[in-house]
Write a structure and sequence with these properties.
This protein has 2 domains: 46 residues, no CATH class; 82 residues, no CATH class. Helices cover 58% and strands 0% of the residues.
């Protein structure tokens, strides 16, 4: 058992200290390389690095990090959860549906967070596509029974 834990720790170490930095470097370098090759100039490489590298990461962080603080203060709470998580619609499209935060806390194993009509949930659609391609299995989709059980308005 101890040997298995050491092997897992070694795999996590390789992943954390080798793979993640390499992928991070690749996601910043690839736009610069593509920009340079498309325009055949250094300015194209710098522009690609800036817009598709740095600005993309900044926007991603500025959308991802506020989901928890905002969605635990502002919004609707259609499902019963143990905390004050809420749905905040203005962030839904930018966060790919992650701001439908109330269902995420009421039913954490559910693959879809935006279950009401009109709630755009891009990440759930992506999971649905991956399931159709056979890349993911045993996905837990919301059923009317599950939703009725945790709904506040019963």
């Amino acid at each position: 058992m101890l040997a298995g834990k050491r092997k897992l720790a070694g795999q996590i170490g390789v992943y954390a200290f080798v793979i993640v930095p390499l992928l991070t470097l690749l996601t910043l370098a690839a736009p610069a390389v593509i920009g340079g090759l498309v325009t055949w100039s250094w300015w194209g490489a710098v522009t690609g690095f800036f817009w598709a590298g740095l600005v993309r990461v900044a926007l991603l962080h500025h959308v991802t990090w506020p989901v928890n603080p905002i969605c635990h203060v502002i919004g609707e709470r259609p499902f019963a959860s143990r905390d004050r998580s809420a749905n905040f619609w203005p962030m839904a499209i930018l966060s790919m549906g992650e701001s439908w935060h109330n269902l995420h806390h009421a039913d954490p194993t559910c693959a879809r967070h935006g279950v009401k009509p009109g709630q755009v949930d891009v990440s759930a659609r992506l999971i649905w596509i991956f399931e159709g391609l056979g890349w993911v299995h045993e996905v837990r989709w919301p059923s009317p029974d599950r939703l009725a059980r945790i709904s506040v308005a019963r």
